[in-house]
């Protein structure tokens, strides 16, 4: 099988590692606008051949893992270039605009819209991890718009990689992912900003920070080049989550200003039920854990 | 040596485990208002004898690890009951009010104000971990007010436990800890609340949550009984950090509303420097990690 990976970083590179294990006869072609990343991916053995869109007609499968703003530009061109028996899937963190951009494309049936909920705060080819996707959820949107046998080729692979498949429409995906992923990133970035601003002249102060602080600001290490277009694509939903989050913080601050400690206790006690919810979330893949 | 642990949960229990390893001849006396916890601690071997304040005169060392509101009530009584050659240290997350409450106590020289920056989101005797404190920072306040040989008894032990000792005045401690610990807890609790409120009728949605969400809401599992009095003690500093955090979130939301993606990119890029800062923080002790 010929697999093309377009955007050979954490997501694309981790797909390459798993596919190579599961389909050892595969030849991997890498395409990336960043020549240094491409050379690194070749050196790391993630891909076998540096390639470009002129070779895309050779592909049986194309993994597109590029920032979502580039995705909406490139996906139609990629579909133009592939043959009729090729499945193209993406890993974008937003789905509405991507699905909309290829809605009327003559090769829409070759595309499977996917969002594997997996990753770390690191990026680039060296961040690729084998088994990143094992036990993780993969959200598939508009599956009915993909040709049967091409659905099958991708989904069988996802299942062999140990992913849990969930089907959802693109609008519902974007609405809910704003709460369980996009908002976490903003809360983390702004927490990091608040502390850095305050403590910029007192680096020693970070000696006082423990694992709790590290955990809440971990996502503030994430790539701005990846996340800016995600927030742009999902602006409406993200603004809504932010308004609700800010409202909740203001209410908490008001309780504190009013010395309403029963109210503060209740807020925290009610939120403790997150324990049971988190028990359902697949194991963490942050750096601290993958080191073990 | 006779060591009394008052409040035998995560913090006190972890001290007991390390002290038992380092000073094998020690007899451990447990005092706790929660009889179930005390029985559990005895069963787990954290303490050898269930005790009360009437025996405190036997103590060579007292570890006080109780919520900070109870601490300010109990600490003067504990000091009343100990002998002149006993060192009493606490593990409270705020320091100003605690130091103030014992300022004029006749046995002030027997007290060492400490805040070991260590813990997990779990609580109770079963949450106690050996080596919880290795590599962690222990902030000591007003060390000059403790008798030399009693300072030495406690500090030698902290060093043998692998802790990094830092000296600070109580006001500076409370100001900075609001940024690097207390704010993280509120941001996490309110993030959890926002998502639970929105998704209360759609539990399946948490299938979409990944390790990033888990990381940012981990602290929302923390104990309200412990954290409510911390926020009360440190109200002024916590309100200040919250105001700045809310302001930063509002500015981010405004950039998004204005479609100012260059501004959003810059915000995130500037905050990425948290990477270098986090590199200085001792290794995580969250449950996911200690499981390895």
UniProtKB/TrEMBL annotation, chains A, B:
<dbReference type="GO" id="GO:0006571">
    <property type="term" value="P:tyrosine biosynthetic process"/>
</dbReference>
<dbReference type="InterPro" id="IPR046825">
    <property type="entry name" value="PDH_C"/>
</dbReference>
<dbReference type="Pfam" id="PF20463">
    <property type="entry name" value="PDH_C"/>
</dbReference>
<dbReference type="InterPro" id="IPR008927">
    <property type="entry name" value="6-PGluconate_DH-like_C_sf"/>
</dbReference>
<feature type="domain" description="Prephenate/arogenate dehydrogenase">
    <location>
        <begin position="1"/>
        <end position="286"/>
    </location>
</feature>
<dbReference type="Pfam" id="PF02153">
    <property type="entry name" value="PDH_N"/>
</dbReference>
<dbReference type="GO" id="GO:0004665">
    <property type="term" value="F:prephenate dehydrogenase (NADP+) activity"/>
</dbReference>
<dbReference type="GO" id="GO:0070403">
    <property type="term" value="F:NAD+ binding"/>
</dbReference>
<dbReference type="InterPro" id="IPR046826">
    <property type="entry name" value="PDH_N"/>
</dbReference>
<dbReference type="GO" id="GO:0008977">
    <property type="term" value="F:prephenate dehydrogenase (NAD+) activity"/>
</dbReference>
<protein>
    <submittedName>
        <fullName>Prephenate dehydrogenase</fullName>
        <ecNumber>1.3.1.12</ecNumber>
    </submittedName>
</protein>
<dbReference type="InterPro" id="IPR036291">
    <property type="entry name" value="NAD(P)-bd_dom_sf"/>
</dbReference>
<keyword id="KW-0560">Oxidoreductase</keyword>
<dbReference type="InterPro" id="IPR003099">
    <property type="entry name" value="Prephen_DH"/>
</dbReference>
<dbReference type="InterPro" id="IPR050812">
    <property type="entry name" value="Preph/Arog_dehydrog"/>
</dbReference>
């Amino acid at each position: 099988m010929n697999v093309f990976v377009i955007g050979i970083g954490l997501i694309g590179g981790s797909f390459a590692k798993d596919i190579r294990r599961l389909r050892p006869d595969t030849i991997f072609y890498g395409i990336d606008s960043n020549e240094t990343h491409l050379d690194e991916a070749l050196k790391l053995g993630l891909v076998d051949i540096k390639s470009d869109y002129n070779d895309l007609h050779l592909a049986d499968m194309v993994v597109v893992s590029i920032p979502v703003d580039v995705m909406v530009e490139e996906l139609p061109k990629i579909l133009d270039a592939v043959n009729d028996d090729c499945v193209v899937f993406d890993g974008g963190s937003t789905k509405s605009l991507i699905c909309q951009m290829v809605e009327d494309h003559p090769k829409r049936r070759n595309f499977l819209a996917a969002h594997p909920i997996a990753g770390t705060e690191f990026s680039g080819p060296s961040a690729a991890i084998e088994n990143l996707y094992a036990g993780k959820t993969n959200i598939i949107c508009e599956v009915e718009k993909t040709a049967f046998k091409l659905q099958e080729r991708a989904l069988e692979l996802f299942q062999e990689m140990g992913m849990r498949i969930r089907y959802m429409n693109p609008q519902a995906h974007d609405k809910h992912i704003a709460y369980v992923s996009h908002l976490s990133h903003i809360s983390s970035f702004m927490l990091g900003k608040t502390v850095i601003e305050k403590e910029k002249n007192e680096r020693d102060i970070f000696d006082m920070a423990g694992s709790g602080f590290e955990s809440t600001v971990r996502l503030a290490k994430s790539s701005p080049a990846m996340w800016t277009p995600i927030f742009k694509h999902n602006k409406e939903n993200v603004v809504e989550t932010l308004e609700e989050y800010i409202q909740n913080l203001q209410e908490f601050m008001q309780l504190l200003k009013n010395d309403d400690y029963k109210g503060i206790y209740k807020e925290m006690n009610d939120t403790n039920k997150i324990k049971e919810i988190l028990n359902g979330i697949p194991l963490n893949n942050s750096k601290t854990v993958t080191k073990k």
